[in-house]
Amino acid sequence: MSQRLEKLESDFAADGRPLLMGALVAGDPHVEATLKYMSILAEQGVDIIELIVPFSDPTYHGPVIQRACARAIHEDVGWSDICELAARFRERFETPIVASSYFNRFLAMGLENCARQMSAAGVDAVMIADLPWDESQGVEQSFAAHGIAIIRSVAPTTSTERFQSMAEGARGFIVWTGHSGGEVTISTESFKAAMAGFHQHTQLPIIASMKVSTGEEAAEVGEFADGVLVGSALVWLIEGRGADLSERIRRFVDDLRRHLRP
Amino acid sequence: MSTTNERLLPGRFGRFGGRYVAESLWTPLQEIADAFDEAVDDPKFVTTMERWLDHRIGRPTPVSHLGALSERVGGAQIWVKREDLCQGGSFSINTAVLQVLLARRLGRRSVIGETGTGDFGVALGSIAAAMGLEARIFMGREDLENETLNVQRMLELGVVIETVDTGTRGRKRACSEALRFWATHSNQAHYCASSLAMPDPFPRILAYALGVIGAETRVQLKRRGCDPEYIIAPIGSGAFGVGLFSEFAKHTDIQLVGVQGGGDGHGARTSASLVVGSPGVFMGTHSYLLQDDNGQVLVPHSIAGGLCVPNVGPQHARWAAEGRVHYVAVSDDDACLAVRTLARTEGLLVCLESGHALSYAIKIAATLGSEQHVVVGITGSGLRDLERLDQFAHSRQTP
User: Fold this and answer.
1) Which end of chain A is more exposed for a tag (fewer CB within 10 A), N or C?
2) Taking a contact as any Cβ pair under 8 Å apart, which residues of chain A between 79 and 98 contact chain B?
3) Domain-located, residue B8
4) Where a domain ends, among B141, B175, B202?
């Protein structure tokens, strides 16, 4: 595992400060812009940056990210662009980067090759939307050999027993996917109960993806989870563009951060 | 691809198959897999299913010898297995029976599915109505506009239709939306697959439901003294093909041929994943896939809605890799011509999917002797394709 991810783990173990994770679609609207947005996130205290590598059929993402993927594919964003983005970001920042996509994109590149290049570029982990834990063992080994962690995802349908097995050997952090692009249908009570159950079986932070789009919502989710993943709301800001976009991203992230106990 | 012991992983067909889904779907899929394994071990369940197939949807369907067509082609004897005679005019009702029975066994109140051509929507709608369950069908807007007859039929059957906005024909996006809906309603609703190119357990479930097609065909041919040289089926996602081929896969003296949609016939606009595609993971399964060098999935093209899929069920990937089944592509025009030839010589109006298989059969039969036999699987009736045939007539001459 990378030193950056190790530090994230140990810092969290030490102070339990809630984590803020922000997702961007790489290459939306173009690669230079993504680098700029990543820098803003890092400067505003985002703890982890998820770089979504566009896929033709982002089944498990909602309409906002689906549209962003379509725009980025139009820009022909490939793995070399992702690696270049990460490497240039690394010149200035230590914020951990998670490259996320669908399994076929990793397979097409070749797992070994992909892991080697991403590791060299300073990527810390990968998330693969359609690779469940049960199918991931061999893949994890390929990536681990290059110091890259595979982030495990859990969902409202994950039982505590299943979580117990999944948490064993998990690295970095765990992501709770509460909506998979659709509406959040879980009640606050069930969410609270699931988090409480899961926390008995892991020391790692559990970061929740719950369609958060305001500081208030971030605070609510942060009450039970160890962090908040903000994806669609950020990508939606970028879709809207406008002259003061950088400033609006800065204000949005700042608001999230302040509500999440800095 | 993976160093994990494959026996521990679900739904493998050689190195293909698997259950590549988001975590939210893993447990609901495992529940269906467990329910299916228990159900097929329960003689009462199996008897109930067979009763529905025999007394309701019209099994066994006949195998017909096409004397006039064979004579016209001037080669082998051509036979057809008539799934167009199932209730509703399509083979897909066989899969609807098993899956709606599973839904009932699990105590679900409704069934969810997606449809491209509308055939599966009609099938699921009729069986759900008969068993007292609600049916909710997801369908792409393009398909909805193209398949007016089947949409009307679904509405008459009381199906709730959910329109999905897509840029292209085919059930891919509709399937994503159906699964997304199911992931948050899996306590009340049962997801029913129409495609074989899906995560485990669906390739196993559909193969089980459709195995009856091949089993009947083998017995019927034997009774008629027919020892087939070739058995030919159209392959979209390949559910029908698995149903027809499985029974014959061990008889290596019979050549099995799967016919995919060759689109415009020039290779670029095609849906022939087993001819021009390569292995990849998509829609939850590791199989052959139309994709570019970056692993982006390409848009499939075929005049036959049922063949318009970018990937194929994992059983076919294994057969292709082992060389057990020969996979070929037939163009839109050749398929239309074959459908029309059959209608004019035999009075049978079959769907364009079947036209693909028939076109290849006619070509192959011409190279064989009159004592040899070629069997073609007919997946459904051609009623829904009348408009497309009409368009074809205006661009081409009739046979």
Assistant:
1) C
2) 79
3) no
4) B202
Q: Nearest by CB to B295, from A108, A138, A139: name it.
A: A108
Nearest residue on chain B to A70, judged by CA atoms? B296
Report the alpha-carbon distance of residue A108 to residue B290 in Å, rounded: 12
Q: E strand or H helix at A206, and its extent?
A: strand A206-209
The interface predicted TM-score of the complex, written ipTM, equals 0.95
Whether residue B23 and residue A105 make contact (CB cut-off 8 A), yes or no, is: no
In a domain, B6, yes or no: no
A162 contacts in B (CB within 8 Å)?
27
Q: How many structural domains comprise chain B?
A: 2
pLDDT, residue A75, reads 85
Residues B79 and B39 in one domain: no
pLDDT score recorded for residue B79: 98
The span from the CA of A95 to the CA of A48, in Å, is 6
Q: pLDDT tens-digit profile of B374-391?
A: 999 999 999 999 999 988
pTM of structure? 0.94
Nearest to A185 among B27, B184, B281 (CB): B184
pLDDT at A241 over 80: no
* A108/B25 Cβ within 8 A: no
The mean pLDDT value for B270-290 works out to: 97
Domains of chain A in start order, with CATH, are 3-257 (3.20.20.70)
Q: B145 and B235 share a domain?
A: no
